[in-house]
Amino acid sequence: AIRRIDHVGIAVPDLDEALAFYRDTFGLVAEHEEVNEEQGVREAMLVPADGDPSTGRVQLLAPLRADSAIGKFLDRSGPGIQQMAYTVDDIEKTSEELRAKGLRLLYDAPRRGTAGSRINFVHPKDTGGVLVELVEPGGAH
Ligand code: MC0
Hints:
2,3-Dihydroxybiphenyl 1,2-Dioxygenase, domain 1, alpha+beta, 3 helices
C-alpha cells in the first residue's frame, strides 16, 4: 500500500545552480546528495531548513549523460517536474498489485534508489501522464 508522498522529482540541468536557487528562494536544503550511475543522475533530497522533517521531499535530478532518463526528459520537455514518488512498505507487493490492475512497471525487479532505497516506476502512459515512482525506504531514509 502507498503510505505517503515520498518526494517530487524535478529535472534540472545543473545541480549546484538548482541547489543554490532552492536554498536562497525557498529555504530548502539538501539532507542527502548522491550519484546514481545506473540511473544516470546526480541527485539531492531537499527538506525545509527549519521545517517538519517528516515532510515529503523535493528531489533535484541532474543528468550524468545526455542519453539518460533525465537527459532525454530535459531535451524533450525542459526543466520541470519529472516524477511523483510514493513511499511503500513492500515494493514487490505493491508492484504486483499494480501489475494485476494492468499497469506496466518499468523493471521486473526493484533497483537501487536514493539512500539505500529500492525503487520501481509505473509507465507514465498508464497513469494519466505522470511518471510514478515507488520507493521502499532503506535504513538511512
Ligand atoms: C517520458 N514521458 C513522460 C515522462 N517521460 N511523461 C511524463 N513524465 C515523464 N517523466 C512520455 C513521453 O513524452 C512520451 O509521450 C512517452 O512518455 C514515451 O516516451 P519515450 O520516448 O519512451 O521516453 P523515454 O525514452 O524518455 O522513456 C521514458 C521512461 C524513462 C519513463 C520510460 O524516463 C524511464 O525509464 N524512467 C525511469 C527511470 C528514471 O526516470 N530515472 C531518473 C530518476 P508521447 O505522448 O510523446 O509518446 S532516478 C531516481 O528517481 C532515483 C535516483 C530515486 O528517486 O531514488
